[in-house]
Write a structure and sequence with these properties.
By secondary structure, this protein is mostly beta strands. Helix content is 0%, strand content 42%.
């Protein structure tokens, strides 16, 4: 299936529906579309993150990266892909996996674990790691 020329290595996909599939990957690649209509790139020239996952949560697409956690707001596409501001101190620095379960969004990294209930981010201390 042909992808836009700007697409680089794809690391993750999220099937929102038959018509809307999200692909994320190297060099800030974020694509949306489907096999019938093709895919559109939502990345900009400034996006150079290595996205490792992709997950939709309440109309926003979350993207874990080696540089932190990023988000694309479907309702505000002009904002582009931007870093998530959690209010945690320090902010999330290590996001490798993103998923949602039972109404909660989870960000898991090598040392940093956090959950988001739609209003508040909470850091989860892992007993095998030094506190962040």
């Amino acid at each position: 299936m042909p992808l836009p020329e700007v697409a680089e290595a794809i690391n993750a996909l999220y099937v929102e529906s038959e018509d809307r599939v999200w692909l994320a990957g190297a060099n800030g690649t974020l694509l949306v579309g489907n096999a019938n209509d093709g895919f559109k790139s939502l990345s900009s020239v400034d996006d150079n993150q290595l996205f490792l996952g992709v997950c939709e949560y309440f109309g926003k697409v979350y993207l874990p990266s080696t540089l932190g956690l990023f988000v694309y707001d479907v309702q505000d596409p002009a904002a582009g892909i931007r870093e998530v501001v959690t209010g945690l101190v320090p902010e999330l620095q290590d996001a490798r996996i993103i998923d949602r379960a039972n109404g909660v969004l989870w960000s898991v990294g090598g040392k940093d674990i956090a959950k988001f209930d739609g209003k508040t981010w909470t850091r989860i201390h892992h007993p095998d790691n030094d506190p962040i």
